[in-house]
Amino acid sequence: MPRIPLRPLAIVLLLAAGTAHARTSHVPHQQVPGIYHQQIGDLQVTALFDGTVALPRQALTGLDAGAVTRLLEQGYVPEDGKGLQTAVNAYLVQRGEHLTLVDTGAAQCFGPGLGQVLGNLRAAGYDPADVDDVLLTHAHPDHLCGLLDAQGEAAFANATVWLSQADAAYWLDPASEAGAPQPLRFAFPMARSAVAPYAAAGRLRHFAAGDALPAGVTALDSHGHTPGHVSWKIDSGDGRQLLVWGDVVHFHAVQFAQPDASYEADSDRAAAIASRRRMMADAAAGRWWVAGAHLPFPGIGHVRREGEAFAWVPGEFSPLM
Ligand SMILES: [Zn+2]
Predict the structure, then answer these.
(1) From CA 143, how far away is CA 137, in angstroms rounded?
(2) How far is the CA of 67 from the centre of ligand 1 (A)?
């Protein structure tokens, strides 16, 4: 073994470090584009980051504060004065030439921290005019405001938009707005204007159980967060399933371990808990891929059963086939 004198080695390392420092003096001030690709059978799935929203931990109900604190600390969830950092994600699914977008982000509805789905879709190399179908999980602003571009026009000029009959009946009806809790009323006019250009063009479809849907997709009833919330199951063509489950989970560090903890904005908390348990159990039993609108970006992975509770298993960064 040749003996390397310590002192000269240290000098070489210091010189190398100095050179590297000189070459990397440009510090980026922006994150890389919020795009992530995952191949699932015949599907090329692209997660599109819309931004983050702060949810106050007090919005979690049904679990004592000590347990909430313990789970949040174990999950290392970033938190500032406004609340817990919560991602907003949409998902583009390409099958052959057919493009399906599940949810659309918040666009202009929630301020400058959100609204990046359209830009990230373009950064991923897709033309919004090529999107064939937009599947909405529900009619909340962070899922449908992105139907409109910055000019208030249809962002997806050729797409058919699919919204459940139950959510359409609630969120598009001025009569239900008048009877809604005050903190929710702002969302009604946002929902009506987001779908307006599509409805005017005859490209807004309301569906109920048993109605025909685009090929290869199934709407699973997961109501409770909203009256007509659905989770979209997409057949990969090779026997695997992708479940794009929308707002089944808002607080990932808490609600996998404690599925009975709910979000105060849920329209029917008992139904939301039942739906969360059912979606998690089915996803775990079927070994389905799952994509979640408020799971840490890219929010693509699997659900593992742990007794009466569950755990989130993020997918691993992988080459495309
Ligand atoms: Zn949401």
Answers:
(1) 7
(2) 24
3-state SS track over 103-156: CCCCCCCCCCCCCCHHHHHHHCCCCHHHCCEEECCCCCHHHHHHHECCCCCECC
Contact 251, 264 (CB under 8 A): no
Distance 7 CA to ligand 1 centre (A): 58
Q: pTM of the prediction? A: 0.92
CA of 294 to the centre of ligand 1 (A): 7
Ligand 1 centroid vs 246 CA: distance in angstroms?
Answer: 7
Q: How confident is the model at residue 2 (pLDDT cuts 50, 70, 90)?
A: very low
Is 81 a residue whose pLDDT tops 60? yes
Whose CA is closest to 60, among 258, 276, 279?
258
> Ligand 1 center to residue 98 CA distance, Å?
25
Which H or E run includes 254? helix 252-255
E strand or H helix at 46 = strand 43-55
Residue with tokens 């408020």: 294
> What's the pLDDT band for 23 if we cut at 50, 70, 90?
low
Q: Give the whole-angstrom CA distance, residue 111 versus residue 317.
A: 30
User: How many angstroms from the chain centroid is the CA of residue 19?
Assistant: 42
